[in-house]
Amino acid sequence: MKRLRPLIRYSTFALGLTLVCSFISERNQETATERPWKVRAYIQKHDFLAEALHQETGIPKAIIYAMAGLESDWGRSELARYANNHFGIKSKPDWRGLEYCKPTQEYDGQQFRTEKECFKKYPLIRRSYEDFGYFLMQNKRYAALRGLEADDYTGWTDAIQRGGYATDPEYAQKLRGIIWRYRLAKLP
User: What domains are there in the chain, each with its CATH number?
Assistant: First the structure.
């Protein structure tokens, strides 16, 4: 019986260690699929704006959040903080409002280069959301969006890229990656 005690202790220890490792592994998998705090905080803070925009325009909330997240780094970018511009909408010659100009990366068909661009500056974040909805749904370049199903994220992201929303040739893929990674399609 004396010889069995160390074996029993070892077996109990090994079983306990296995259970602890299994728990940690499951916990790490859960943590890996959770949204980071900056994403959760952004969604919680701006959900009423995204919901209102979705109801008014039909733009899926997953698309709204993916574009706002990518363009504004979840509300933490310079443009978001100083111009309330969460969608990276540039000012055009006919824009009569305030502008915020800064260096930005633009793709010229061969490589990225730094250019100074001017963006719309909004008095309120709400105006950024409203202008984004108007920009996408009233602009002829994005007419293809009007016939898409709300859950056709590939169709939405491809049409947004084809319309020229960004010069980045991987823009649609990045949006889909954000939707998938942060489970934005599962938002109510």
Answer: 37-89+123-186 (1.10.530.10)
pTM over 0.85: no
What is the SS3 assignment for the chain? CCCHHHHHHHHHHHHHHHHHHHHHHHHHHHHHHCCCHHHHHHHHHHHHHHHHHHHHHCCCHHHHHHHHHHHHCCCCCHHHHHHCCCCCCECCCCCCCCEEEEEEEEECCCCEEEEEEEEECCCCHHHHHHHHHHHHHHCHHHHHHHHCCCCCHHHHHHHHHHCCCCCCCCHHHHHHHHHHHCCHHHCC
Tell me the per-residue pLDDT of 71-102, one tens digit each, with 9 for 90 and over: 999 999 999 999 999 999 999 888 999 999 99
Tens of pLDDT along 105-129? Answer: 999 888 999 999 999 999 999 999 9
